[in-house]
Amino acid sequence: MGIKLAVLGSVFISMAVAASGVAQEAKHYEPTVASLDTHPLPDWYGDAKLGIFIHWGLYSVPGWAPLTHPDHDFASEDYIVYNPYAEWYLNVVRIPGSPTQKYDQEHFGPHHNYYDFKTQFDAETKKWNPDDMAGVFRDAGARYVVLTSKHHEGFTLWPSQVENPNQTGLQAERDIVGELTGAVRKAGLKMGLYYSGGYDWTFNRGPIEKGRDYEMVKPESVAYGRYADAQIEELIAKYKPAVLWNDIDWPRSGDALKVMADYYNSVPDGVIDDRFGVPHSDFTSPEYSKLDQISEKKWEECRGLGRSFGYNRAEGEAETIAPDELIALLVDIVSKNGNLLLDVGPEADGTIPPVQMERLKALGAWLKQNGEAIYGTKPWTRANGSTNQTDAKGKAVDVRFTQKDGKLYATLLGRPAGQAVLLHNVKAAAGTEVALLGAGPVKWTQRAEDLEVQLPASLPGDYAWVVKLTPGK
Ligand code: GLC
Hints:
By secondary structure, the chain is of the alpha/beta class. The chain folds into two domains: about 40-375, TIM Barrel, CATH 3.20.20; about 385-470, Golgi alpha-mannosidase II (Immunoglobulin-like). The chain has helices at about 35, 45-50, 90, 100-110, 115-125, 130-140, 175-185, 215, 220-240, 255-265, 325-335, 355-370, and strands at about 5-10, 10-15, 25, 50-55, 145-150, 190-195, 245, 270, 300-305, 340-345, 385, 400-405, 405-410, 420-425, 435, 440, 445, 450-455, 465-470. The strands form four sheets. Strands 8-7-6-5-4-10-9 form a seven-stranded parallel beta sheet. The protein has a six-stranded antiparallel beta sheet with strand order 11-12-13-19-15-16, with helices on one face. Helix 10 (about 255-265) links the parallel strand 7 and strand 8. Helix 6 packs across helix 7, helix 6 (about 130-140) crosses helix 12 (about 355-370) and helix 9 runs parallel beside helix 10. The relative contact order is 0.12. The protein binds alpha-D-glucopyranose (GLC). Alpha-D-glucopyranose (GLC) binds near residues 88, 247 and 302.
């Protein structure tokens, strides 16, 4: 394969040979929105559909938050004092009268310094096995992982060479970022990194108590801009993350556009989220909320398996999304051109809480049977559909559509009480093969606008069944 070079103005285009042996265009990006906007969405990200988010840091040691605000009504007056996000521990513990302050005093005594959790964090993380963790994510059916390299507390999960001018002792003893990156890639998944560019409570300590503080507590000093730029450049150079997931904007004293251009020039098939506070991104990132319609712009919903991103020991069965809801959520998101970035909050030693582990297993089992309707698919002409069926409790069995290589997938989001299922407004031409994933071909009849499929008496698997339509030759 020859090397072709072309120079277009200041844009330098070359043909690079990707690992697959297929020639890929690698171009040079400039730190301008116009240049960054020419970055195509890489196929791997559009096809992946499921990623695992990991929030892991000093907050994983106390691992606690109140079980409040289950609906994540972020704008409500007392949201921060009763913040269900355990990774906000350091912020909330400093709000007088907060449940977190009370919890902290009871468990760690008065005057306990949050950063002293480092000793225990380092001791606990010695037990962690990155290959086991990567294996869990692979078996759950995830195609990529995003790890918090630095959350708002300012503690880094890699041995940064960039000196923090305000505080020492801010680094995990193990290179968690490096070790997990290696293990995740070995397991065949892509590895991405989260970085809290907007908040760093070692530069602007806050605390954030009310909505008005959200802006005021963003550090904007020249020193912080330099620090954040240097740290993220270090992450890019050292770990080449497949996803660059910033949070809470980039400091104005830093250079977000340069970071983005440097990133694409280093990782051409990487993706950038929409939280840098500049008008460029590869995908949008709704949090604990999803879209009602197909969106042309790629999007990624992030949410925890429970109500928190970081480990919250108070969460159990009732606070954790049920397996059938989780699967329906993934199918719904994918039908609308989204990915699900599903968060696990490991305990300090890297253990995934059993209640979360169970969900990951259910998801993995479901994807093993039905992944064909998920991975590599595109939205159909519409996302939502309905049937004539209800489940045993009388709830309507709805449908979500996806398509791939001319095939249509109609996923039933519940267990139909009857076997003759009418898929409303679905037409199959003569010669179409209709099958149920995990079972095989089924009988079908076109009844005016609706397609009737005859399901077997016993359905394969426990949740959400996929009817696949393959047109005849
Ligand atoms: C928010 C929260 C944070 C969490 C993140 C994930 O911005 O502050 O705790 O890491 O969203 O989307």
